[in-house]
Amino acid sequence: MAKETASRAIVFADISGSTRLYETLGDTIARELVSQCLDLMTEQVNRHNGAVIKTIGDEIMSTFATAEQAVEACVAMQESVAEDLPHRNKHTPADFSIRIGMHYGSCILEGGDVFGDAVNVAARMAGIAKGGQIITTQDTAAELSPATRSSTRHLDRIPIKGKSEDVDIFEVIWQADDVTRMATGLLAQGVNKLASLRLRYHAEVMDLDQNMNVFILGRGQKADMVVNDSMASREHARIECRRGKFILTDMSTNGTYVETAEGPSYLRREDIVLTGRGKIALGRDLGEATEYVVFDCR
Predict the structure, then answer these.
(1) Rg for the chain (alpha carbons), in Å?
(2) Which of 71, 137, 211, 261 reaches 20 to 30 Å from 44, CA-CA?
(3) Distance from C-alpha of 197 to C-alpha of 113, rounded to nearest angstrom
(4) How far is Cα 60 from Cα 165, in angstroms, rounded to an integer?
């Protein structure tokens, strides 16, 4: 069969935690629910001029001619599953969700299937996504219209197998309250507010401000603050200042634990805004950690 090279948006969408559905609902009910969910997703792919390439268990793979079409379809899939599925099936759990990964790039079309680097990257994005999320790449976000691109946010920069450089990943914000929260946040970030962050690890104290470079916490000697814990990665987490806010991003194998006045958080390739005072532990729960960094945002 003839091969064709073309640029396509590749989308992988699957049901988050589908194995648990069979355990809690039973095989018959769970299978019906999964089937109805796949039908809804397929409807939205077709409605937005996409093509379903294959269905694998609880996952569908589809392609679109443009990144814009793909994002519109992804948002429609999320909305349809969240709003329509509970009406179709009364057994839909309250926390039922799908996760979606997508990437736009060059690929090979052959025999009704799709191959190439773009497919691998899209599958990696789906693996990163959590339930209710749409995850894509910076290259894909750059293909979007300004209006659509404004509803994306940068999440992280991660290594991907087969890529010589790390890849910037973005989340597409599709829920109305999240979009409103983003818009409000951007307006607030326009205020000229001086910010500073003090980090303390044992006797070492570092003061950071808005003009800081990226600051690395980790076990390696190249880290800006070396934390002596065997569970820490050499370059475990980074801190940077974005529009007057200090953002901590986990880059590690074992994750980062952050404790603030609002309670504990566990980060795994995610970020968090540091506010007030708190503690940061690298790779180990703060209840067990003896090595941790104390922070104070001012």
Answers:
(1) 21
(2) 137
(3) 51
(4) 28
> Considering the domain 196-297, what is its CATH architecture?
Sandwich (2.60)
d(Cα 128, Cα 135) in Å, to the nearest integer? 7
Mean pLDDT to the nearest integer, 121-144:
91
CB 60 within 8 A of CB 13: yes
- Per-residue confidence band for 190, with pLDDT thresholds at 50, 70 and 90: very low
Report if pTM > 0.70: no
The kind and range of the H/E element at 69 are helix 67-83
First to last CA, the chain: 64
Return d(Cα 269, Cα 255) in angstroms, integer. Answer: 7
pLDDT at 191 over 50: no
pLDDT at site 146: 85
- Assign domain 3-184 one CATH number from 3.40.640.10, 3.40.50.360, 3.20.20.100, 3.30.70.1230: 3.30.70.1230
| Angle, helix 67-83 to helix 27-47, in steps of 10 degrees | 140
